[in-house]
Amino acid sequence: MVSLCPFTFSHLSIQPVYPTVNVLQGNPVTLSCLYNGSTSTDSLLWYRQYSRSSPQFVYLVGEAKFEQKAEPLVPGVSAVVNEKKNRSTTSRTSTELSITKATLTDSALYYCALRVVAQ
């Protein structure tokens, strides 16, 4: 089981599509978060936290196809950003963290975070 936590600050927000996701060992799983912000400058980060431990960095991804992976690498993990433009000036964007084959060590609390770059 994995869980995600929402965050809101001023006009920016990031929240999980599903707060809890259950997956059988060996199956793929995708965790998704929606956010509103500037997709050209902001970065989205993924962390995971085991019980009684500090959060650990897993993946950073930006709209400009920039990626940074955890060291040591978390096997079978990838992330993407998907932008959805509306007719208005606002856009709603999602980020997804995919695990190709879930294992018991993937059972944790996952955080999707938004790193905002001041303009």
From TrEMBL:
<dbReference type="InterPro" id="IPR013106">
    <property type="entry name" value="Ig_V-set"/>
</dbReference>
<dbReference type="GO" id="GO:0009617">
    <property type="term" value="P:response to bacterium"/>
</dbReference>
<keyword id="KW-1015">Disulfide bond</keyword>
<dbReference type="InterPro" id="IPR013783">
    <property type="entry name" value="Ig-like_fold"/>
</dbReference>
<keyword id="KW-0325">Glycoprotein</keyword>
<dbReference type="GO" id="GO:0002376">
    <property type="term" value="P:immune system process"/>
</dbReference>
<dbReference type="InterPro" id="IPR007110">
    <property type="entry name" value="Ig-like_dom"/>
</dbReference>
<dbReference type="InterPro" id="IPR052051">
    <property type="entry name" value="TCR_complex_component"/>
</dbReference>
<dbReference type="GO" id="GO:0005886">
    <property type="term" value="C:plasma membrane"/>
</dbReference>
<protein>
    <recommendedName>
        <fullName>Ig-like domain-containing protein</fullName>
    </recommendedName>
</protein>
<keyword id="KW-0472">Membrane</keyword>
<dbReference type="InterPro" id="IPR036179">
    <property type="entry name" value="Ig-like_dom_sf"/>
</dbReference>
<keyword id="KW-0391">Immunity</keyword>
<dbReference type="Pfam" id="PF07686">
    <property type="entry name" value="V-set"/>
</dbReference>
<feature type="domain" description="Ig-like">
    <location>
        <begin position="16"/>
        <end position="119"/>
    </location>
</feature>
<keyword id="KW-1003">Cell membrane</keyword>
<keyword id="KW-0732">Signal</keyword>
